[in-house]
Amino acid sequence: MNSESLVSISDFSKDEILSLLESASRFEASPNRKLLEGKVVATLFFEPSTRTRLSFETAVNRLGGRVIGFSDANTTSSSKGETLHDTIMMVSNYADLIIMRHYLEGAARYASEFSPVPIINAGDGANQHPSQTMLDLYSIYKTQGTLENLTITMVGDLKYGRTVHSLLMAMYYFHPRFNFVACDELKMPIEYKEFCNKHGIEYHEYTDFSEDVINETDILYMTRVQRERFTDIMEYERVKNLYTLRNSMLLGSKDNLRVLHPLPRVNEIAYDVDSNPKAYYFQQARNGLYARQAIICKVLGIDVK
Amino acid sequence: MTTIKNDELLVAALQNGTVIDHIPTESLFKVVDLLGISRMKNSVTIGFNLDSKKCGKKGIIKVADVFLHEDTLNRIALVAPNAKINIIRDYKVVDKHTVTLPDDIYGIVKCNNPKCITNNEPMRTHFHVIDRDNVVLECHYCERTVAKDDIVLE
Q1: Which chain B residues contact residue A162 at CB under 8 A?
Q2: Domain C-terminal end among B68, B98, B128
Q3: Which residues of A are catalytic?
Q4: Residue B113 and residue B10: Cα distance in Å, rounded?
Q5: Is residue B110 within 8 Å of B139, Cβ to Cβ?
Q6: How confident is the model at residue A164 (pLDDT cuts 50, 70, 90)?
Q7: pLDDT mean over A7-31
């Protein structure tokens, strides 16, 4: 068992999260540092994810480390029936750190139990994706100057959206207030509402995406409503445009409001929002680089000054 | 002609061993599986659909000359949370207690999520008991919860 692995955002305490944000801002000020010189990092993508892989590999490269790995399990021996256990044991002979994405839920937790080198979970099925959560937290921190006492409005697919669930869990240290805006089929699951109740976190649920809700919001977190999530296609056709953000809807919003989206976007944010200074989703993706540099150094026990 | 009274038949005395009582009828054979009774060499008496003052019909298992380990017995709590354990020595009940669900359950329970790593690798399952009263488990790996009625044994 390697205690330095990062499998779920809940593995980190409040202090650890704050210190990661601090490191991320240091990397933003100066991203190219030779902190991983002589180190080899393996990126094992059993499920393709170009965006996440490029972000992690850029982070390693900017830290002066070297990358080995694969971006598609079809080209590896797992397609010949090799177990995850054996693949991890083999790769740990070569690398100082393993960054893995897997289509099976719990794969990274399992790997972290026997791997001799730290594991960073870059997504395990519909379960956890902690580096996405870190970059969301960093984006919120950077744009608001704090994580404390913010009103966060989550819109779209709140049922299957892994990023909104992890963000909700991670924000619990910071006294947030949530608005959940979704149609009945994609409502926030009961276990997350119970989590809020248990920890005294205020939340409100809406099926209407109205300007009243936007106007009291600090962070507007948009997500994609995917057709394949619906059992009833008629229902999808009915709601698909109800949760689209248009520039005109931001007219009365607070000055500090920022629009976040984990990307890729389809039609849930109209293109006329892109030129609004409150649109933050592209910078948000860039913050992923700094957040991942911070995470890599943290699990390897490297101090960032 | 000798007649054997009904209750004598049902509660034939055990000299030494373990009696598991107050098992709900529908869980009896799950308990038999959980304890691995089919692989035992000792004499075992299994009572099914017996009348019970407390719970209508019940099941009972008597294992002669075996004092089952507490961890083994606590597995029973998954399917029969109110089962009573009686330890018998020299025809006397020397200890009587209910089973308690442990905080963590290794093996035994199968994860219901087909995309969970535990259903795809040769490995042992691991669940956290997150609600002892209602028997709700959470998979240590995929983090999905399993309610009592959905528990599937391996």
Answers
A1: none
A2: B98
A3: 51-52, 80, 101, 129
A4: 41
A5: no
A6: very high
A7: 95
Range of the domain at A267: 131-285
DSSP B55-78: TEEEEEEEEET----HHHHHGGGG
The reply to whether residue B123 touches residue A105, judged by beta carbons under 8 angstroms, is no
Task: Measure in Å the smallest separation between the Cα of B148 and chain A Cα atoms.
Answer: 16
Q: pTM (2 decimals)?
A: 0.87
Residue A74's Cβ-count burial label (10 Å; 0-12, 13-18, 19+) is exposed
In degrees rounded to 5, what are phi and psi of residue B149? -70, -15
Q: Cβ contacts (< 8 Å) between A125 and chain B: which residues?
A: 115, 142
Tell me the C-alpha distance between A250 and A285, whole Å.
22
A216/B8 Cα distance (integer angstroms)? 75
Q: Are residues B14 and B82 in the same domain?
A: yes
How confident is the model at residue A235, as a pLDDT? 85
B23 close to B31: Cβ distance less than 8 angstroms = yes
pLDDT at A233: 87
CB-neighbour burial class of residue B129 (10 A; exposed 0-12, middle 13-18, buried 19+): middle
Determine the Cα–Cα distance for residues A296 and B9; give it in Å rounded to an integer.
Answer: 69
- Tell me how many domains chain B contains: 2
> Tell me: the pLDDT tens digits for A206-233?
999 999 999 999 999 999 988 877 888 8
Residue with tokens 């709601």: A239
Q: Give me the number of domains chain A comprises.
A: 2
Are residues B22 and B48 part of one domain? yes
Could you give the CA distance from residue B47 to residue B28 in angstroms, rounded to a whole number?
9
To the nearest whole Å, the CA of A11 is away from the closest chain B CA by: 13
Domain boundary among A128, A157, A173: A128
DSSP 3-state of A104: coil
Tell me, yes or no, whether B32 and B78 share the same domain. yes
Regarding whether A176 and A238 lie in a shared domain, the answer is yes
Decide if B117 and A106 are in contact by the 8 Å CB cutoff.
yes
The two tokens of residue A65 are 């480390």
Specify if A53 maps to a domain: yes
The whole-angstrom separation of Cα A103 and Cα B142 is 11
Range of the domain at B122: 104-153
Cβ A233 vs Cβ A227: under 8 Å: yes
A98 belongs to a structural domain: yes
Q: Which value does ipTM take for this structure?
A: 0.88
Question: What is the sign of the dihedral through the CA atoms of B73, B79, B81 and B82?
Answer: negative
CATH code where residue B80 lies: 3.30.70.140
User: Does residue B84 share a domain with residue B43?
Assistant: yes
